[in-house]
Amino acid sequence: MVAGPALAVSPRGGRHAPFVTLSQPISALTGTQQGGRPLRSASMAPASNPPATPPRPVLGPPVYVVGGGPGGLAAAAALRGRGVRAVVLEKAPAVAASWRRHHDRLRLHTTRRMSGLPGLRMPRSFGRWVSRDDMVRYLETYAGAHGLEVVTGVEVLRVERAEREEDGWVLHASGGRRLTSRAVVVATGAAHRPVLPDWPGRETWSGDLTHAAAYRSAAPYEGRDVLVVGAGNTGAEIAVDLVEGGAARVRLAVRTAPHVVRRSVAGWPAQATGVLVRRLPVWPADRLLLAVRRATVPDLSAYGLPRPGTGPYARLRRDGAVPVHDTGLVDAVRRGRVEPVAAVAELLEGGEVALADGSVVRPDAVIAATGYRAGLEGLVGHLGVLDRRGRPRVRGARTAAGAPGLYFVGFHQPPSGLLRELAVEARRVARAIAAGGQPPAPYGVHGGHGPDEAPGAARRRGAAKTRRTPGPTTAPPAPARTAETPETPDTAQTQGTPETTAATKASEATKATEASGTTEAAEAAGTAVSATPAAPAASHPGEPPRFLSPKALPPVSLPR
């Protein structure tokens, strides 16, 4: 984990830019390495030859992206790749805040090759199953490599429609800030608020009870009797971690028997199967997945973990519950090291726990791996855009009725993997915003909530082009703009177009900056001038945008 101030590591290594926080000047954009380590890999290395002509800077009012996790960063990078200025607002001191809080054992259940975000692949040094710390380093590098405008220490409290329709949206943020934007992307994540069941007796229970969100390692539980509540992926991983970490006894309280799948069989990852079946109807998809499970995972019914009666795909659509990827649970259950028991019914006096089958246990500690909520009610709940579970009714390029310009990324869990899905959603959102809010052609319906924006023939052609295109790299940092070398837009590209006015304002702002040496003078001209150039839009709709690696994060100004 990175200690000290949050750093965005440049792919060149050794130089980086600190994220802007409220405790430091917005214009403080350069620095030297003080902590952490840069990533070095072929996929993250800069191109040897910089472009001959720097692309035009991103100008104009920003689109605000709420959340500095993978969904927010991917959306901002995709927007930037299409020439749309995006500012990421993150309430934590650094990006990837939720990933930093995960337990030490965490590794992705999706492969490295299918977990990268648009424009930057994960290096081979991460291995096939990426660890928590490597994921944090990747997200830090991603923000710096794409020159994203990231403002930390700002919490968006509420999003409302502006009084005038042409003004779009108003964001009420911490510190009394009031921000306006024609479009808003919410990417705070589905696992935002831990959920602790309201068990009878919970308020007065004297035992050691904690949510899995606070679990880091098995060290505090060595030699203790631990009851893990919840048989999802988090509960299964914690149970195995406790066994390997020296817990005296580990029981796993199961309310609904999970679908357990091997993470990989003969080199074939479960994620790849999910990619293949995600477009199939529920019945044939379940038939295929159940056949694979029967052939690879033994029946654990005799050990207290029966096979579910509902297919994995049907349950995913109904409850949003993904299968449990086996990282040692099957072996631990068969060896008796993890004991499945009935669900928790009540918390009794004296630290005892009553189970649904009538039995009573007295563990030394209870860890509730009972899930999370998106926690969007206070932010957008008043807009009628959430379903009964508190998740967005729509996703990707679609917007809810009465909320044009309000997009959501990273709240849908498909069988193909969350990171892969949010990367797709980010591209679609960027395409819709760049097109003036017009979504692509209608898609079919699929998944637990909202429309499934299934790609058609156009996207398949785009995917084919992507396969023929060399892997994305990042170019070396662009030289910082100085008064002696002002950067101006290409007049040949702006003359006689709607961008002419913006280019003129940018030129005026640049002159004002030269005269005063401050970004405030540039803002006085009516525009925000970014010192970071943006890559031009991709030449083909299906081809991912190319990005440049700036030397420093561009200036960001938020009203007080």
UniProtKB/TrEMBL annotation:
Residue ranges annotated as compositionally biased, kind Low complexity, are 480-538
Q: Any stretches that span the bilayer, and where are they? A: none
Pro residues bias: start-end ranges? 48-57
Q: Does the keyword Phosphoprotein apply?
A: no
Database matches in Pfam families:
Pyr_redox_3 (PF13738)
Q: Name one GO molecular function term.
A: flavin adenine dinucleotide binding
The organism's superkingdom is given as Bacteria
Q: Where is this region: Disordered?
A: 24-57, 437-560
Which residue windows does the record flag with biased composition (Basic residues)? 458-468
Is DNA-binding found in the keyword set? no
GO cellular component terms, alphabetically, are: cytosol
Q: Any idea which UniProt keywords this protein has?
A: Oxidoreductase
Question: Protein name, please?
Answer: Putative oxidoreductase CzcO
UniProt source species: Streptomyces fradiae ATCC 10745 = DSM 40063
The upper taxonomy is: Bacteria, Bacillati, Actinomycetota, Actinomycetes, Kitasatosporales
